[in-house]
Amino acid sequence: MSVEGGFLAVLAAVLAGAAASLLWPSVGSQLWGLSLLGLVGWLAASDVARPVHYYLAAGIALLAGIPAGAWMLLLDDGHRPRLLLFHAHINLLGFVTLTVLGTLLTLWPTVLRTRIADTAPRAATRALPPSLIGDDGTFSVPNKIILAKGVPTVVSVTALSSSQGMHGAVLTIDDLQTKVVDGWAMLAVQTAAPLVPGGTWSASGTVQRNGTVVYAVAVPAGATSLTVNLSGLADGSQTRWWAFTPDGVRAEAVAAGTAYCYANYLDGNGCSPTSRTYTAPKAGVWELVVESRRTSPLLTNPYQLAATITR
Length: 311
Known about the structure:
By secondary structure, the protein is α+β, with helices and mostly antiparallel strands. The protein has five helices and 15 strands.
């Protein structure tokens, strides 16, 4: 007998048991149970054993419902309505519903004259736990990721940070049953302070000799100029700022080097160390790097940095 024929024959017995259970509950329950056992045995020996777990659970519910129905025949007091309610629910939501769901799982591919892929159950239930390495609390990912064979999977990553600057982490997706890391990706986001026309962004602090402090500001589209001012320097402090565009290249008009734009060093060497304006700045995140030269007489160099835009 073919797979379709064998399945439909056993299915007919199951449906007959269901109809009989509505008309003659005691006889129908026994016929239903025998049909289920026959269907479970046939499925276990065939290549369509997908719903066998449904039928096993339905059989357990049936075994619980039969003694409950028999017990009702012996009771004639206040406990009988509660037992009747239990009997109805365990039969309807237990073995009837579970049997229908398990049957549809195989019946639908049978109607379409196709088969369920051997890897479908594992792919449908395979969930991998992602993890973040080096995260400072900026990123959040789903608790589990379900991968399907041959289908690209999109993993949603949310970045939310209250501190300015660069934030990074490594996202790993690892199946503990394999000996390798199944997937990983580098996450990076830069949080910048927004610049608005008519407003002034400012920051102050100290930078160590031969050290740097990096700030990020967001220039909106349509800005005609970006002006940066450096003040609050101590006497003799050799400190500058260096601007980088959203493309990651320097925005200074002079040649890059260690002898340009420092306060108290060669008078800036052709570059204003205290105030510069960048015309038609590109929209995006700009980096302002405050740097103290290695020849600064001060170990700790205070500064104040301010930026404004016009539109």
